Amino acid sequence: MPEILRHTYSLCPVCQKKLEAVYVRRDVAVCFELICPTHGSFSTPVWYNRVSGAAWTNVEDELTVPPPCPDACGLCPEHRQDTCCVVLEITKRCNLTCRFCFADGGKGEDVPFANLQQAFADMVKQSKTLVQLSGGEPTLREDLPLVIEAAKKAGLLYVQLNTNGLRLAEDPAYAIRLANAGLSFVFLQFDGLSSSVYESLRGRDLLELKKQAIAHCNDAGLGVTLVMTVVPGVNDQQIGDVLQFAWEQSPVIRGVNLQPVSYFGRTPNSTSPFEHLTLDTLAEEIEKQTHGVIPSSKLFPAQNDHPLCGFHGDFVITSEGLPKALSMPSKKCTCGKGLVSSVPKREFLARRWQRKPSIFDGNQTHQSHDLFDLEYFAQRVQSHGFTITAISFQDAENLDLERLQRCRLHVYDQGRMIPFCAYYYTPRRLL
Amino acid sequence: MEQKTEKEPLICHRCQMPLMETKTFFKYLGHSFHTDIPTCPKCGLVYISEALAKGRMAQVEQELEDK
Ligand SMILES: [Zn+2]
Ligand SMILES: [Zn+2]
Fold first, then answer.
1. CATH number, residue B65
2. Chain A residues in contact with B49 (beta carbon < 8 A)
């Protein structure tokens, strides 16, 4: 017997009519389901119970009336989470044509510099202090160092660059210029460790370029977090390889951000039926493919986010070069009404993603390599912290307005802060 | 970052013995640690200085607590 687990609201994937939706436990999976009077019924699996769902259970009250999302997004008074990170598109141009691209970049223009200055001022005024420079491909802007400088001058604490790494690879001096301009850390698109993965997803073999980009960031003292778009059947068997590659290059590599593919932007309807890699499948694959070095029990849903939006695990890389888990489940309950602050989380993540010069970084001066030694531990966590995060973006197939209401990743658009999945929402095209 | 406090010898109130830096094992937030803490050689009293509590231990707490 199917069992309804939770009521919420969604949009018809085709006509975007606001409708009731439910999570239903069926034989193989928990499915997200809705029925449009015009376009019929939709069902998509969101959880296969591959890891225990206990820690992942939502503790918030169910929605009883349809929320104003996404029409009122930007943010509306009903929004439940403060901004953690702001995504700012600084150009539409791109030097790749990827199969999957949420921004559908490639053509178009740079955002005028004065608009960016205005955006930075807006963010600082609202105490949103972490900006992700995004695109398109932000490094195509000749004035990128000036943009970074302007962000820092406006008062932003953390400036993150989202990049495919081509420019960083081509020019060893470029990373140094960006670091000198005040760049805090780099998020590098990194889909796998074989040429074919890049050929399939990005149109050409980029593996050696990615490695060069990492080396150049290392020379510039910039921390790099690898961003892996995980596509079933293309690179989902390389998750373990990417994680190992990453921790073996601690401290330049600060962690891995895994993004199961979502269907919006360029490919709202590229495969049929849509195939989502659910978070429990991802957690199980991480454990399996790392041969238990990263157990799924050490990956936790982020405390204030909706549990279906992502997870994270905190580690320190030991002097033997292996990840040791740090995180533990919190007993703190932050549920309740009102806007939840994102400051502690933002500071925590920024601390992890940013590379810290440490006396333990190069020549070891401390006699101990013993993680039980409080002094060594405290230093090592800063210099060799390693963070695994997963973000599961919503698309037309599984858009849950309750999730949207609790989103803390926002896109800046002309003074408004729009939840990421609302901003890039792309309705399904009729075949 | 770490401030050094004045280096007057600490005295155990009960035993009137000077405390000695002693490697001390403890459990904190699910992890086991050791560090040198002034300890009375006779009765074992330990003195957790403000510098330790507000410095390293606070930092470790920040790193270990879930966000
Ligand atoms: Zn419809
Ligand atoms: Zn004593």
1. 3.10.20
2. none
